[in-house]
Design a protein that fits this description.
By secondary structure, the protein is of the alpha/beta class. It is 34% helix and 17% strand. It is globular.
Length: 375
């Protein structure tokens, strides 16, 4: 019997999962997969951005069959990769062993698509034959590692270029990585227990009584307050939905939306607050219950997209063009010249989110319902 320690499934300090499940040993194992090509992805800023970056994984698997893929992220994003068969190893920056790993292992390809100094230091430390994306020099200045990354770098530096950009984020990161883009999907794979969690919620609230379910994600995190639609807009929308459709309405949000969602839960009929203290994976499971999701440009947008939902997204300060629609996302933007400003404060009256009317959203709902019915 030969122990094949070069197999990507063997962790070193305990048996691999295949041996634990069946007792099989290396010399007769059909799942033996020697590590021949290693890829490191560094991406850990913003949960929604980490999630939508998973769209690169199917393309990497197609371009580099059998490669071992390691992803370096923050610990709060680690659960994004549960049940994700495309990633072999997850490292977190909080783990004290990570830096030793980074300095010890050698990769064939490093992909770091963020022009962020905090993650660029890790890209600089990593040992890789080919590096694509961004790094940082000895003076502490971030710089692009390849020509394809330079375009994204300039978009982040100059507002006019950002506003006029027509490429989606997914297209950009594929170009940075040097691999073909075929509109590969964002990846969330729910586990059996997560599906059971969603089914229990579905049964408890008797969602089968409705023709369909609409999810309202009412928040947008603390950084970009103008990604979030106004409270009055959601109140009037709930009333309009009650009048036109026999639909259930699920409210989603984080801790900052607790009071807001409590108010909205009383704004009409068939409104169910899913809670604002859910774990990330519980949030994913609860989003899976909606047929149509209405949201700002935030984590819920990428979650609903990954789960194959019809999505209505309300845009203001961020770029609608950078969002890949996959034929399922209806984008709503007010008719204002100042859009894609990426400002955290605004003194315009009305501002971009105040300029989105219930009529605009209801028109999009009609289109999404039609799409759902014909699919």
């Amino acid at each position: 019997m030969i122990l094949k320690y070069d197999c990507k499934h063997f962790p070193g300090d305990h048996p691999c999962s295949y041996h634990k499940q069946t007792g099989i040993k290396c010399d007769t194992c059909p799942d033996y997969s020697p590590v021949k090509y290693k890829i490191l992805i560094i991406k850990f800023d913003a949960l929604g951005d980490v999630l939508r970056t998973t769209a690169i994984l199917p393309s990497l698997r197609a371009a580099f069959p059998g490669a071992s893929i390691t992803w370096l992220t923050r610990s709060n994003a680690k659960d994004i990769f549960i049940n994700n068969a495309f990633v072999d190893i997850i490292w977190t920056i909080e783990d004290p062993v990570t830096l030793s790993r980074l300095l010890s292992e050698e990769f064939d390809l490093l992909i770091h698509p963020d022009a962020s100094s905090s993650s660029a230091y890790f890209a600089r430390c990593a040992k890789a034959k080919i590096k694509r994306g961004f790094s940082i020099n000895e003076k502490g200045c971030v710089f692009p590692l390849n020509n394809e990354a330079e375009e994204w770098f300039e978009l982040g530096a100059f507002d006019d270029l950002k506003k006029n950009n027509k490429k989606t984020y997914q297209q950009v990161i594929h170009e940075i990585a040097g691999i073909p883009y075929g509109r590969s999907e964002i990846i969330i794979e729910l586990t059996e227990s997560e599906r059971a969690f969603a089914a229990q919620f579905h049964n408890k609230h008797e969602l089968k009584q409705f023709d369909f379910v609409i999810g309202l994600n009412t928040g947008a995190g603390g950084r970009w307050k103008y990604k979030k639609w106004i409270l009055q807009g959601y109140k009037e929308l709930i009333s309009a939905l009650n009048q036109k459709y026999k639909c259930g309405i699920l409210l989603y949000g984080g801790s900052e939306e607790t009071d807001r969602n409590l108010l909205l839960s009383k704004a009409g009929h068939h409104v169910i607050d899913t809670g604002t203290g859910n774990s990330l994976r519980e949030f994913f499971s609860l989003i899976s219950l909606s047929d149509i999701v209405i949201t700002g440009d935030t984590l819920a947008l990428h979650t609903a997209t990954a789960l194959g939902k019809q999505v209505i997204c309300l845009f203001g300060p961020t770029s609608a063009n950078e969002i890949e629609d996959y034929g399922r996302i209806i984008k709503i933007q007010p008719d204002l010249d100042c859009l894609v400003c990426y400002k955290m404060d605004c003194d315009f009256v009305p501002n971009c989110m105040e300029s989105i009317s219930v009529k605009m959203v209801m028109k999009a709902v009609e289109k999404a319902v039609s799409r759902k019915s014909s699919s």
